[in-house]
Amino acid sequence: MVGVVVEQRPQMIARAASGDAHAFAALIEPLLNPAYRLAAVMLADRSAAEDCVQEASIKAWRKLGQLRGDASSLRSWFLSIVANECRMVRRQRWWAVAKVAEVLPLPGGRDHFSETSSDLKTALLRLSPDERLPLVLYFYLDLPLDEVARTLGLSPAAAKSRIYRTARKLRSDLTLEEVF
Amino acid sequence: MTREDFRRELGDAVDSISGSPDPALPERVRAALVHAPEQRGPVWIGALAAAVIAVIIVGVLLVGNPLNRGPLVPGLVVHPTPTICFPTCPGPLPTPTPAPSVFPFVCESGPTTLTNQAAQPVEQIDAVRTGKRPGADRITIEFKGTTAGTTVGIIPQANAKFVTDGSGATVSLTGRYGLLIRITGADNHTAFSGSTDLKTPNFPEIREAREVGDFEGVVQWGVGLTLPACYQATIISNPTRLVIDIRWPPTD
Lengths: 180, 252
Fold this sequence. Notes:
heterodimer, A: mainly alpha, Butyryl-CoA Dehydrogenase, subunit A, domain 3, B: alpha+beta, 2 helices, 22% helix
C-alpha cells in the first residue's frame, strides 16, 4: 500500500505558481508514485502510465492557477488530472483497448471469481478504467472518502455508492459494513 | 471476507498490474517541467497563426464576397483604387444592364415563351428574389453566367396549385391564382443556395414563390398571386436574369 502524506506547502505552491518548475516538481514528487499506480491500473500499460503521469504533470503545472485549497486539495486535484489524462490516452489510442482485452481471457465463461489475487486481478481488469479508479483511490491509495469524492468530481455520498457498487462487482458477497 | 482481506487482495492485484514505477520517473517529470515553457511556444504560435488566418479570411469575405453586391452601408460610395496587373489589365467590367422600368406596362395574360438568343452555354440559377416596384411586384431569377438556348415558359394559372416536377406531388401556394415559370436547360441546385420558398404576405400581388421543380435540367418556380396574372417578362444581362413584373391589382 502506498500512503501519501503531503504537507501543506503554501510557499512552494506560490513559487511554483510564479513559474518555478523545480518548486512544482518538488511539490508533486510525493504524488508521482500514487499517480503512476493509478495510471497503470487505468491503462493496464506501465509504459503508457509513465508517459501519462509526465503529461499530466505538465498539464497540472499549467493549470496550477486553478488549484484551490491546501495540500490535500493538491493531491486530489493532481490525481484527477492524471485520471483525465488516462481517459484521453485511452480515447486516442484505440489499441490500448485491444491490448487490455488480450489480458482478459474469461476462463471457461465463469461468472464468479475464485478467492485468489490472480483472479481478483483478472476481475479488476475486466472493469472499465473509470470503475477501477474509485477502487484504487479508496482501497489502494487510502484516500479518505471526501478526497476520493473530490478526485472523482462527485459528492461523498455518490462516491461511497460508486465504491461499494464497484467493489461488489469484484466480490459479490461484500457487505456495506465490510467496505466502509 | 473482511475489509482488510479485500484491501490486501486488491493491493496485491494493483501491485501485480502496475509493478513499481521507474526510479527515474521523478527526474523525467522534473526535466519535462523545466522544458515545458518551451513546449508552450508552438501552442501560442499556433493560436496566433490561427487568429491571423481568421482575420485574413474575414477580410477576404468582407471585401471579395461575391454575394455582397451592394454597398455595405447604404449611401456608401467606394472609390476605385489603382490596380496593378500582370501582364496587362483586362478591359473594363461590363456595365450591368439596368432593370427595366415597370411602365409602360405591356400586359401579358396568356402563356409566354422567352428564348435567349445568345450562343453560350447554359448556366445555373444562383439566386431568386422577390421585390416590389412602383405599381408591380417583381420576381427575379438570376443566372450564374449568361444563358444560352435557355427557354423560359411562363404559364398563368387559375389557381395556386402546382404539381412538383419529379415527385408529382401537388403543392398549394398562398394566393388564389398562380404563375408557373418553367426554365428548360437550367438547374437550381448547383449554384443556388437561397431559400426555395419565398413568402411575401405583404406584397399586393405575389404572395409566395416556391421552387416546384428542379429535375433533369428543367427548373420550375410556382408563384401564388392575389389576382389573375397581368405580367411582363424580360431577360437582361450583367448579370443575366429573368425579370417578371406582375402588376398590382387596381386600387379603384
